[in-house]
Structures are given as C-alpha cells and as structure tokens.
Write a structure and sequence with these properties.
It is found in: Membrane. The chain is built from nine helices and 13 strands. It is an alpha+beta fold.
Length: about 475
C-alpha cells in the first residue's frame, strides 16, 4: 500500500504542477492579447502615417510604401535572434490598381477589406492587415505583419518566463519531499516509541511536546492502552480468583474421596459421598459460570440465533431449571403473560442472565419457599421488565453496588457460591442495552429486575399466556 508520505508528495507535486500549468496558460492568453493590441496599434499608426504623407504631397507613392521599412532597410522590433519584425505596405487605388508597395511585400493583395483590421492568407502565409482608406485621394494604404512573427514573439516571452521556472522545478520537488519528511517527523517519533516498547509496557505516551495534529492520535492510543491495561488486570484477577475458587472444591473432592476409600464405617462413607456430590455440584456451577462469563464478554452468538419472543425464551430457561428447583425443595412460579409479542435481539445473553438470576435465587431461598419469575411490557411496549423474586435474606443496601463485581459475595449470602452470578447478569444486561436493579421485595427477600429494550411492539396476533408453577 502506498505510504502516506509518497501519497502527500504526489498530491503536492500534482497540485503545484496544475497551478503552474494554469499560470502558464493564463500568462500566454494575456500575453497574446496584449501583444496583439500593441502590434495592431502600430499597424494602424503606420497606415495612417503613410496616408497622411501622401495626402500632404510630402512624399510620392513609391517612397511612401517604403517608409514602413525604414527606407528599405529591415527594422527589428525586438532583439531576439529567432524572429524579426518587418512591416509590409501596399498602396492600392480605390478602383483596384496597385500604386506601390514596400520591398519584401507579397505579390498578392494583402487584404480585400476596404478599411480596418483583417486577417488574410497571401502566398500561403497568414497576415494581420490594417487598411486605411483616403476617399479624397482615392487610395487604400495596407500595412501588415505576419502572424508567424506574432506567435514567435509570444513564444519567446513565455519561454523566457517558463525556462527559469523549469530549472527551479527539481529543487522545488526536492524541497517538497524534505518538507514532508519534517512535517511527518512527529508520526515517525510515535512509531519509533511504540516499536521499541515491549508487549507488557502499556504506560501512556508523552504528549507534552506533540504537534496539535498528532495529539488526537496519541490521546486515542493512550485511551486504548488504558483500556487494554484494565482488561489485562481484570483478566489476571479473574484467572487468579477462578483458580482459587476451583482449587477449593477440587481439594475437597480429593479429601472426601480419600475418606470414603479409607473409612470402614458405612455412615462415614455415605457422609463423604454426600460431600463429594456437593463439591461436584459447586464445581459444575463454577465451570458453567466461567463459561457464561467468557461467552458474555466475547459477545458470542449461536450460529442460528435470531430475534425471538422473550416469553418463549424465558419458558425454556424455566423448563431447564425445573428439576433443580425440585431438588432444592422450592416452588418455581413463572408468570410469563405477554399481551404483545416482545422480541429480544440476543436470546443467548437473555437466557444466561435469567438463568443466573434464578440460580442465585435458588441458593438464597429457604427450603419450601417460592421463587417467582414474571415479565411484562413497560414504556408502551418499547421495553420489557423481567423480575425474579425470592424470600431469602436479601442484600443490604450498602452492598447493592458491590455484589455485581466478580467474586464478591454479600455477608448474608447463602451456601458456597463463587460470587460470579450477579456479575454475569450485570454484564449480559449491559450487552443487551438494558439495566439491572436490585432491591428489597415486599414481605422480605430480594427483587431483581431487568429492563430490556425490545425489537418490536405489538403484533397482530397475541401470544398466549405462559404460566408455570413447580411445587416442591
């Protein structure tokens, strides 16, 4: 790909060349007009002078015809070696007879015009002619010069202007190239600084002495490095906590397996097997939550994922967790009324968020209590509110802002969770463009509410209400 320096160089050279060529064309046009005006004035003056001399009887016709040549000698109009200015004169009678002409004048009639300026071709050569008519004497005086002489004169002037400029052009091109190098030097310095850094060096680039055009680039790079450093720190923290949380149940599994293997007491073996089952369950949930977190952070989509009804996706999550609710001795009530078909653009993220909310509710709810899942349109169908309510201890107000952080568990949390559930929910809801609110429920417990934007409002066909109640 063409470098920025070469591209700017070509643009500047092309622009300079275009301006230069335009100036030459304009100068040529103006010079031609000026030269034509000056030479036409000389033609008219010479013709009137000859006519005046003849009228005053100061000179005969033959001598008058040679006046414009300076007594038969060539009169140079300029000092250029490649052209000479020589006027030709003819004196004709009004009846059409040639009365006299200057030396070097063409044999043919210079012009057929009776008076004024004209351009004609005589003996294969173009002439510019001025005709002065004297009716009293019955003569026409014609004074002319060749068009080739005029063109040579204009060409000489243009050459005198363009030739020095052409000699300067290579120097100008070199100065443009050097100037571009100096102008792009701040970018080169930034590139050298970045190329000399190690992959782990994410400190901000200095911008105190940077050019104003380079400062937005440096600010953007510094912002990117800050975000990358934050992401790397979060990844290190996540990896460390995950390793610690996985180590605990795995160590318990190993210990309980050794107890079961070595103990001759059946009751002790049964107790060890129960502890192994709990450790397996905890590890299983930990692994699933880690996978959920990775999927949400990467915004992974299923290959065949399409927008679909929120209620139908929630019904699928309820069906998947029904057996878990029965095992824990809980009543799961799902009231998924939907008088308008609301759709979600990312059902995978929606399922992850709601499943983790329900699992958290299952962990907090006391045995024999109820966990309720409801949904309803809000804001005239533009958004959907999904609520999960349990009868557990709830979350103290001073901990609400903390429990959505990774591996943070409230002081009233039940069981041996990992502290990832609400962090996953919060991240998934953020990816969906919604918001998560946690607060006390009426009558005790926790009420978690997700409010999501919907892709569509009312549908022509209402969806039937989905109600599920799973008792313990």
């Amino acid at each position: 790909m063409m470098s920025m320096r070469l591209r700017l160089f070509l643009i500047l050279v092309l622009a300079t060349g275009t301006v230069w060529a335009s100036a030459v064309l304009w100068t040529r046009a103006r010079t031609e007009a000026h030269v034509e005006r000056v030479l036409d004035t000389r033609l008219s003056e010479a013709a009137r002078m000859v006519a005046s001399l003849v009228a005053d009887n100061s000179i005969d016709l033959e001598a008058a015809a040679g006046v414009v040549e300076g007594g038969g000698k060539e009169t140079t109009f300029a000092t250029a070696a490649d052209y000479e200015h020589r006027l030709s004169c003819q004196i004709w009678s009004v009846e059409g007879g040639l009365l006299g002409q200057s030396e070097g004048a063409p044999d043919g009639r210079l012009s057929s015009s009776s008076s004024g300026f004209s351009t004609s071709e005589v003996d294969g050569q173009a002439w510019r002619v001025y005709t002065a008519e004297d009716p009293d004497l019955g003569i026409r005086v014609m004074v002319a010069d060749t068009m080739a002489m005029r063109e040579n004169l204009v060409g000489s002037i243009i050459t005198a202007l363009v030739l020095p400029a052409g000699l300067v052009l290579p120097a100008l091109v070199g100065l443009i190239w050097i100037s571009l190098g100096q102008g792009l030097a701040p970018l080169d310095r930034v590139a050298r600084v970045l190329s000399s850094r190690s992959a782990s060096d994410l400190t901000p680039l200095p911008d105190e002495h940077a050019a104003s055009e380079v400062q937005p680039l440096i600010e953007g790079l510094n912002g990117l490095m800050t975000r990358v450093a934050s992401a790397r720190e979060s990844e290190r923290t996540f990896t460390a906590f995950a390793a610690h949380e996985l180590k605990t149940p795995l160590s318990g599994l190993k210990t309980q397996a050794q107890v079961a293997a070595m103990s001759p007491d059946p009751a002790t073996k049964d107790w060890a097997l129960v502890q192994i089952q709990k450790a397996v369950d905890r590890t299983d949930r930990m692994v699933r939550q880690l996978l959920d977190m990775a999927a949400v952070e990467a915004e992974v989509k299923e290959a065949d994922e399409h927008p679909g009804s929120i209620a139908s996706h929630l019904a699928g999550v309820v069906e998947d967790l029904a057996s878990l609710a029965r095992v824990k001795g809980l009543a799961l009530h799902a009231d998924l009324k939907e008088s308008c078909v609301l759709q979600c653009s990312r059902p995978l993220l929606l399922g992850i968020a709601v499943r983790n909310l329900l699992e958290n509710a299952f962990a907090a709810a006391p045995h024999g209590s109820e966990v309720a899942l409801t949904m309803q349109p809000v804001e005239e169908g533009r958004r959907c509110a999904i609520r999960v309510r349990d009868h557990g201890p709830g979350i103290p107000a001073d901990e609400v802002a903390l429990v959505t952080r990774r591996f943070v568990r409230g002081r009233q949390a039940q069981g041996t969770g990992s502290g990832l559930g609400l962090a996953i929910v919060d991240l998934a809801v953020e990816r969906l463009g919604g918001r998560l609110a946690l607060g006390p429920a009426e009558g005790g417990g926790l009420l978690a509410e997700i409010v999501l934007p919907c892709l569509s409002g009312r549908s022509g066909q209402a969806m039937p209400d989905l109600q599920t109640s799973l008792a313990s």
